[in-house]
């Protein structure tokens, strides 16, 4: 299987009046064609910025380093013209904020058909037909009438669906979906996730899905990456991590997920404390003020992301110091 996306030693820094903020630190991920990756973690952990950077959409005060290869070509080294050949065509993003990708001054029909005409050689009539079909697939009622509306004439949930339809229009090889279904009601959510899964199976589309909802990851993803304070805490096969989580933060996330807790017959849990402030991360492991398994090393040295026997990558002193783990368990 071809590797579609390979992120290596990837970091993002922001220049702020208070100094530099390391929003993402030394990330490494490889995604094969047709595979999907779930990215989870609390607010501010660096999920959105990572993928905005790959799309060339980092804020002006942000700078990224490392590599992010799409079919072997480094996105971080591409010119805007080169990126424009890929963005929205071979690699699309469903943004957390729908207004990021919808132009308020153009009718949805124009926004949707232009990309097909320009990049996929459709004529106007076929492009309109395809766009209407896509709106229908994401559950927009009466799509042949509504396609002629402006984005601000849609409700929030409808706008979200229009954006999903736009992202899927060119049948991209890689779809990056940032909290794609949070604004939608449960029935539509399920419908959209089913559609994504279908496109994954039928077209071999690779998906990166950023979400707070671990249930979505369980249903759709092959790999999961758990982020904490701009770093990868745990990364690997979704089944391994769901049934044998190693990092205390991942364990906490899973124990706070109602449906999984009832399946595993455990008590519902809430991780104590708050997500860290990136401007004043604690020394050592950023999770140490909230971690029940903390040992001396945790407040002194940052744990490295290392493989455990199952192949899962974990950044935790407790996991990688067997004699301490035995004493504490
Ligand atoms: N332009 C900027 N300047 C300075 N810091 C920024 C800037 N943009 C984002 N950040 C910081 O980068 C960090 C990561 O933000 P990001 O948007 O990736 O979080 P997230 O994991 O997607 O959170 P959420 O779940 O709330 O969407 C945050 O602490 C945020 O405050
Ligand atoms: S390194 Fe220490 S503080 Fe961090 S998660 Fe592991 S045990 Fe907890
Ligand atoms: Mg985000």
Overview of the molecule:
With 329 residues, the chain is an alpha/beta fold. It has 2 domains: 1-90 and 172-264, P-loop containing nucleotide triphosphate hydrolases (Rossmann fold), CATH 3.40.50.300; 99-169, no CATH class. Helix content is 35%, strand content 23%. The protein has an 8-stranded mixed β-sheet, with helices on both faces. The protein has a 4-stranded antiparallel β-sheet with strand order 2-1-4-5, with helices on one face. A hairpin with a 5-residue loop joins strand 11 and strand 12. Helix 3 (108-120) packs across helix 4 (124-137) and helix 4 packs across helix 6 (156-168). The chain is globular, with a radius of gyration of 21 Å. 38% of the residues are buried. The site of magnesium ion has 4 residues, from helix 1.
Topology diagram in text:
Blueprint: E1 3-16, E2 19-32, E3 36-40, H1 47-54, E4 62-70, E5 73-74, H2 80-86, E6 91-94, H3 108-120, H4 124-137, H5 143-146, H6 156-168, E7 174-178, H7 186-203, E8 206-210, H8 214-220, E9 223-228, E10 231-237, H9 238-243, H10 248-255, H11 258-264, E11 306-307, E12 313-314, H12 317-320, H13 322-328
Parallel strand pairs: 3-8, 3-9, 6-7, 7-8
Antiparallel strand pairs: 1-2, 1-4, 4-5, 9-10, 10-12, 11-12
Helix pairs in contact: 3-4, 4-6
This protein binds adenosine-5'-triphosphate (ATP), iron/sulfur cluster and magnesium ion.
Residues 47-48, 96, 178 line the site of magnesium ion (MG).
């Amino acid at each position: 299987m071809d590797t579609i996306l390979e992120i290596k030693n990837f970091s993002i820094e922001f220049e702020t009046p208070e100094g530099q903020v390391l929003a993402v630190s030394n990330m490494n991920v490889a995604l094969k064609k047709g595979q999907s990756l779930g990215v989870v973690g609390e607010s501010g952990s660096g999920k959105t910025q990572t993928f905005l950077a790959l799309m060339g959409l980092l804020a002006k005060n942000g700078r990224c380093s490392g590599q992010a290869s799409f079919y072997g070509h480094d996105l971080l080294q591409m010119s805007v013209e080169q990126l424009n050949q890929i963005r929205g065509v071979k690699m699309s993003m469903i943004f957390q904020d729908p207004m990021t990708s919808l132009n308020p001054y153009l009718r949805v029909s124009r926004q949707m058909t232009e990309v097909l005409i320009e990049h996929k050689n459709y004529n106007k009539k076929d492009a309109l037909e395809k766009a209407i079909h896509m709106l229908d697939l994401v559950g927009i009622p009466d799509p042949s009438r509504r396609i002629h509306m402006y984005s601000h004439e849609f409700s929030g949930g409808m706008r979200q669906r229009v954006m999903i339809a736009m992202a899927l229009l060119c049948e991209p090889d890689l779809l990056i979906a940032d909290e794609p279904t949070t604004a939608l009601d449960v029935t539509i959510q399920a419908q959209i996730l089913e559609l994504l899964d279908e496109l994954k199976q039928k077209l071999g589309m690779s998906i990166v899905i950023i979400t707070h909802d671990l249930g979505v990851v369980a249903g759709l993803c092959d790999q999961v990456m758990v982020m904490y304070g701009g770093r990868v805490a745990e990364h690997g096969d979704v089944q391994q991590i769901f049934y044998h989580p190693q990092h205390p933060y991942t364990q906490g996330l899973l124990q706070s997920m109602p449906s999984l807790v009832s399946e595993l017959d455990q008590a519902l849990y809430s991780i104590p404390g708050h997500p860290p402030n990136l401007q004043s991360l604690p020394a050592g492991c950023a999770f140490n003020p909230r971690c029940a398994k903390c040992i001396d090393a945790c407040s002194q040295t940052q744990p490295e992301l290392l493989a455990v026997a199952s192949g899962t990558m974990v950044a935790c002193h407790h996991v990688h110091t067997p004699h301490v783990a035995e004493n504490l368990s």
